[in-house]
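Here is the promised in-class demo. Please do not try to memorize the tokens; focus on the logic of going from shape to residues.
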């Protein structure tokens, strides 16, 4: 299972607005997603999320800007190369201007206007925990269509 990162930029804690990216190409194209991606060989999780955010939306983060909110495992039995463990972060601090890249078109949404119907099906299960300030450990198993969630486990990560 590959390791990846995901970062959500918010206006405040608790947030009233959330930045999502419309994915223009690659894994998840055509959906709204958080900002993040692969962890390169010999790269730490925090370094990876800061690099990915800079590449995808042009802003700079520091380790102090990052709030860790746990991990989510996504299992795709019909396409095991898609299976991944994702490290979730939230930040309300960055430097620079948010820009569009060839991969991501960033768009701000009010917390009550998140386009769950245009995201991966799992997001409606776990993203509300993150936005409420609850770190999680989640597992999602997808059906053979690689779209439909067949199994959900979400644990409050503060219990560990």
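The designed amino acids, position by position:
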């Amino acid at each position: 299972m590959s390791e990846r990162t995901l970062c959500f930029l918010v206006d405040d804690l608790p947030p009233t607005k959330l930045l999502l990216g419309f994915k223009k190409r690659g894994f998840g194209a055509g959906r709204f997603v958080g900002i993040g991606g692969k962890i390169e060989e010999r790269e730490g999780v925090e370094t990876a999320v800061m690099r990915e955010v800079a590449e995808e939306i042009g802003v700079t983060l520091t380790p102090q800007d990052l709030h860790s909110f746990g991990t989510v495992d996504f299992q795709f039995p019909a396409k095991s190369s898609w299976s991944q463990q994702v490290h979730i972060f939230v930040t309300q601090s960055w430097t620079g201007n948010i820009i569009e890249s060839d991969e991501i078109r960033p768009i701000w949404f009010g917390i009550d206007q998140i386009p769950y119907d245009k995201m991966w099906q799992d997001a409606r299960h776990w993203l509300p925990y993150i936005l409420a300030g609850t770190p999680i450990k989640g597992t999602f198993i997808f059906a053979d269509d690689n779209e439909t969630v067949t199994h959900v486990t979400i644990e409050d990560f503060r219990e560990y």
